[in-house]
Specification:
The chain has 11 helices and 10 strands. With about 400 residues, the chain is of the alpha+beta class. A hairpin with a 2-residue loop joins strand 9 and strand 10. It comes from Novosphingobium endophyticum.
Length: about 400
């Protein structure tokens, strides 16, 4: 779909900034214990994005958002480097938390918690997932075990969370807990002595500052004024956040795979073997042709789902289909890029190896492929029964 003039202008500025300013940072040694950029590096890049006028480019002056179709065009270009979304403040979990707060937060919440996120001066974390071996919530949020209870003009929260992206170093948290009325959400200032980071495991992906922490919450007191929305509405608010957030992941990683494909194409046109360029060997040329097809299909799926969301639908079915189709297509693209590059593809000589790892992880977070397929199969059954 043709972007609007507004999206075209913003997207071109973002792409130019990422290619000229951010890609050179890919060799910057400022990384944490599992390879993710340190906050020092993140905020240095954000200051450059601020100066270039491309910080939080999907949020308009005055607080409005680009449409989802426009956002797709812009976020894809921010993803041309794994560092691009961090620099431009379009990365998860902040991008999804910004969207949720803009839709559900009170005016006080927006001033205190949303404003510094939009300005790129802080990071946030979304505390929903729980330890799997303890029977906690993961792909099935109804298994939520973290609890909250009213105590005067406060709520008290107890529980454990796992794989909480960016918890280490975040200053804004959104916690989901189960009240008598049902799942509820709370805004909290971080760090807090009642929220203890137990561990930050090394994971195959390394693009998100703070890693994916396991967290213990003990007797956390939160003022009632910091409940996000109404008690018992947590699952509804989660869908407000998760449907567009799934799609945003697709947008960003599509940009990364665009770049990986560019690198593979350049290599195939320069490298010679068995008397001719790699591109002229069908085994390589056909892989790159298949990449073109998968990238285009992923783009079309993203645009279709974005259009549904722009039409006012919650888009849970559509975002599930997009998450499955795009993550699986991009996995094929990344894998082919590694294969085309050969030995270089499994080294850190280019970003292709990192893109492969990141996209492999993407097939799991925000719902594994199999969970989305299962959800879609249930809809097929419901629709069939309703038609009988």
């Amino acid at each position: 779909m043709c972007p609007t003039d507004r999206a075209l202008e913003i997207g071109q500025r973002v792409e130019r900034f990422v290619r000229e300013v951010i890609i050179p940072y890919e060799r910057d040694p400022r990384r944490d214990h599992h390879g993710a950029p340190t906050d020092e590096l993140v905020y240095e890049m954000r200051e450059k994005a601020r100066g270039a006028g491309v910080l939080t480019p999907h949020v308009l002056p005055g607080g409005g958002h680009l449409t989802q179709l426009e956002t797709a065009y812009v976020l894809r270009r921010s993803g041309l480097s794994p560092l691009g979304p961090l620099a431009c403040n379009t990365m998860a979990p902040d991008e999804g938390n910004i969207y949720l707060l803009s839709k559900v937060g009170s005016s006080e919440h927006k001033e205190r918690f949303l404003k510094p996120l939009v300005e790129g001066r802080t990071r946030s974390a979304f505390f929903m997932t729980e330890p799997a071996l303890e029977g906690g919530a993961g792909s099935d949020p109804s298994m939520l075990r973290t609890v909250c209870r009213e105590d005067g003009d406060h709520w008290v929260i107890d529980g454990r969370k796992a794989f909480i992206t960016g918890a280490e170093g975040a200053t804004v948290g959104i916690i989901m807990a189960k009240a008598e009325q049902g799942a509820s959400m709370f805004l909290v200032d971080l760090p807090d002595p009642a929220i203890v980071i137990e561990s930050v495991p090394n994971t195959m992906d390394s693009s998100m500052p703070g890693g994916h922490a396991t967290v213990r919450i003990e007797n956390l007191r939160v003022p009632a004024s910091q409940m996000l929305g109404e008690p018992g509405e947590g699952f509804k608010y989660a869908q407000v956040r998760l449907s567009p957030a799934r799609l945003s992941h697709c947008m960003r990683w599509l940009g990364c795979c665009d770049r990986a494909h560019e690198i593979a194409v350049d290599f195939a046109n320069r490298r010679e073997a068995f008397g001719k360029k790699l591109i002229d060997h069908e085994g390589v040329g056909f892989m790159l042709a298949e990449n073109m097809i998968d990238l285009q299909q992923a783009s079309l799926m993203i645009d279709w789902c974005a259009g549904v969301l722009d039409g006012g639908s919650l888009g849970t079915v559509e975002s599930s289909m997009a998450k499955v189709a795009v993550s699986e297509a991009l996995m094929r693209v990344a894998d082919r890029c590694v294969q085309v590059l050969g030995g270089l593809g499994v080294s850190d000589a280019t970003i292709v190896e990192q893109v492969f790892r990141e996209v492999r992880a993407f097939r799991i977070y925000d719902g594994p492929t199999e969970v989305h397929k299962w959800s879609l199969a249930k809809k097929i059954r419901r629709d069939w029964r309703a038609a009988q």
